[in-house]
UniProtKB/TrEMBL annotation:
The gene is menG. Its EC number is 2.1.1.163. It comes from Eggerthella sinensis. This is Demethylmenaquinone methyltransferase. Belongs to the class I-like SAM-binding methyltransferase superfamily. MenG/UbiE family. S-adenosyl-L-methionine binds at residues 69, 89, 118-119.
Length: 247
C-alpha cells in the first residue's frame, strides 16, 4: 500500500515522491542550517546515540539510505571507519552538498560513493551490505513496507538496519509541547531559514502522521527483521531503532 506521507492515508505514491523531490531540491543548500537551528543542536546528540547503537565494524560495507547532505555518512566514517559507504538519496541536489563535503575531507579517508536511489526500489544485489543507516528517511517514503523489504533484501544475514527518525514522546505533557512546536515553530524556522514555509508545514504534518516507536518496530518485523530495539532521545522526539536480518 502507498500513502500520502503528510497524512498517513492511502494515496498514489507519486504524490508524496514528487513533493519530497520538490521540497528538498529547493532547500538542499540550507538544510543543514535548518537542522542545527530547529533542533537547538540536539541532532548532534541523536547522531552520536545512533553511532553508539550501530553495530558497524571496520571491515563493513555500509549503505546510507536517504543520506541527504551526508550527515550520517560522515558521522559513520568518523566514528566507525568502515571499508566503504554508499551514500544514496532520492534528491541529487542534496547529494551535491554531500559530495562537496566529501571533497573537503569530511569522510577522513573512508571511501564514499554517491548515487541517486529510490529506497523503495534499491538497485543493488541481494545480501550486499553489512549495515544500512537511515535518518529521517522512511517517514518520507509513500511505500514504506516495500522500502523496508528492499533494505532487508540487500542486507547480509546478521546485518543491521540502524534508523534515526522523529517519533512520539511517551510523556503526555512533553507530547503536547512538541505538538505545538511542530505546528507553529517548525514552519516558522523553515520559512525564516530557507524561504519555503510550506515545505516545513509538510515536514510538521509528516512527523505527526508517522507511527510511534512501537509502530515502526512492527513495520520492521513485518519486513522480516528480528531483535528490533529502540532508544528514545530528547524525551522521545527522536528514536533510534536497530533491526537485525537473521542468519
Amino acid at each position: 500500500m502507498s500513502i500520502d506521507t503528510a497524512t498517513g492515508k492511502e494515496a498514489p505514491a507519486d504524490i508524496s515522491s514528487e513533493r519530497v523531490k520538490d521540497i528538498f531540491s529547493s532547500i538542499a543548500k540550507k538544510y543543514e542550517r535548518f537542522n542545527a537551528v530547529s533542533s537547538f543542536g540536539a541532532y548532534k546528540a541523536w547522531l552520536a546515540g545512533m553511532m553508539r547503537q550501530a553495530p558497524i565494524g571496520a571491515d563493513a560495507d555500509v549503505l546510507d539510505i536517504a543520506g541527504g547532505t551526508g550527515d550520517v555518512t560522515f558521522t559513520v566514517a568518523r566514528a566507525k571507519h568502515p571499508r566503504h559507504i554508499q551514500c544514496t538519496d532520492l534528491v541529487d541536489e542534496m547529494l551535491d552538498v554531500a559530495r562537496a563535503h566529501y571533497a573537503d575531507g569530511a569522510a577522513e579517508g573512508v571511501l564514499v560513493d554517491f548515487e541517486v536511489v529510490d529506497a523503495q526500489h534499491i538497485p543493488y544485489a541481494d545480501a550486499s551490505y553489512d549495515a544500512i543507516t537511515m535518518a529521517y528517511g522512511i517517514r518520507n517514503m509513500p511505500e514504506r513496507d516495500q522500502a523496508l523489504s528492499e533494505m532487508f533484501r540487500v542486507l547480509k544475514p546478521g546485518g543491521a538496519l540502524v534508523c534515526l527518525e522523529f517519533s512520539t514522546p511517551p510523556n503526555r505533557v512533553w507530547r503536547a509541547l512538541y505538538s505545538f512546536y511542530l505546528k507553529h515553530l517548525i514552519p516558522f524556522w523553515g520559512g525564516l531559514i530557507t524561504g519555503d514555509r510550506e515545505g516545513f508545514v509538510y515536514l510538521s504534518r509528516s512527523i505527526k502522521a508517522f507511527p510511534d516507536q512501537r509502530g515502526l518496530a512492527t513495520m520492521m518485523e513485518k519486513a522480516g527483521f528480528t531483535d528490533v530495539t529502540w532508544k528514545n532521545y530528547t524525551g522521545g522526539i527522536a528514536a533510534v531503532h536497530v533491526a537485525i536480518k537473521p542468519h
